[in-house]
């Protein structure tokens, strides 16, 4: 898109999901949103809760410009590190903070501020960092912060997201208020219990209703309900038709009879179902000429040794018990490890397929947690050597894993959308997914039904049979690795451009 229809617009985007330790589905959406807004000419800013007051050790006596340099470094470092010990229950977060306040006096003032519910953030309380003014800064070169190239600045509202979580936990709906004077638009990348003041346009993104419809998600239903209700007076973006229908039936329609004012708000708001962009990004030189797509050989440590050992594999079966992944000799599961992702079911189906004996592995990129579900998976893996647990992988390794996988697997019980399935379909790789509504929506797009097979998750033997069939039908991938990768890259490039252009058009519609 060469035109700049959003030129002159100052848009603030929430960084809540970019602050988490793992950049999964919503973080991928956040990055696509930021890039599309930037390319449409908008001045894009991030709204983060990270802030550092530089208390103690004489830091406050330093020159103001020096203090600002140190504070900016700490904010950027927090975004680069993410919240490694995320506590989803607001009362747990409050209790943890209270313990710190007892031991350390500097935390007392912070605790008092957080307990002011619902809190109001004044415009002059917000700290602003201009990313474009950073000179030779190390953080703009960190892969995790690659989205900063499309960001003009960062707004810090201390403990904003924790304050909104605490307010959402109250018996009645009371959103946190924030004065965003000087900005035209606020877009949240997930439902937040906030209400912006002095703003022309407020847009909330709704991905799913999973914490309400799936008890094992282990999130507070009152908290999430209030976050969804805070979306009613705003314009709304839904990531799938399925989510839109659920929201209208369970949240929006129930609120219509409350008051004539609310009904007026309902009639004046705007909402859209948009299609996200796929998440993989290739080096610019690779797709410079769409007619001459080059190969991208694997460089990740997960595949490099396996690729070198491919010829040895043909002569011996010793590599069957190896932790090395051989291109096109493994299935890929690229999601977080939690109950609704249904990974235990997939592990059972893989074991029943008996493909481990043929050297075909199951690669799991999710980060295991210290809960019962992850412990059960660890026990299965101890007896099933064909399942490889990589932990959370960086973007370069993820790209290698997708390009060289035999197929993608996604047996989720419920999804708001399903970016891994979209990525698989755009690559044209065999993809086996559950028959939840969002996966069926993806399957119905373009020619994706030729590549995406949606199965129910009632019988693991049906999945085992599908895995066996794919291993037999597509065994030529391993004999033609270069050609297979080039075909996948060329196809993906075309679909990525198509989806990104459509996302930009949809954003212009909802904003205007």
Main sheet overview: 8 strands, mixed
Low-confidence stretches: 263-268, 311-321
Let me know the average pLDDT.
Answer: 87
Question: Spatial order of the strands in the main sheet?
Answer: 4-5-2-1-7-9-10-11
Structurally, how many domains make up the residues?
2
Helical fraction: 40-55%
* Gap between N and C termini: 17 Å
The count of helical stretches stands at 19
- Broad structural category: alpha/beta
Q: Count all strands and give the number.
A: 17
Shape verdict:
globular
Taking all Cα atoms into account, the compactness measure Rg is 24 Å
Tell me what portion of residues adopts beta-strand conformation.
5-15%
Q: What report would you give on this structure?
A:
- The chain has 512 residues and is α/β, with parallel strands linked by helices.
- The chain folds into 2 domains: 10-274, no CATH class; 284-499, Glycogen Phosphorylase B (Rossmann fold, 3-Layer(aba) Sandwich).
- Helices cover 42% and strands 13% of the residues.
- The protein contains 19 helices and 17 strands.
- The strands form 3 sheets. The chain has an 8-stranded mixed beta sheet with strand order 4-5-2-1-7-9-10-11.
- Helix 12 crosses helix 17 (460-473).
- The two termini are 17 Å apart.
- 40% of the residues are buried.
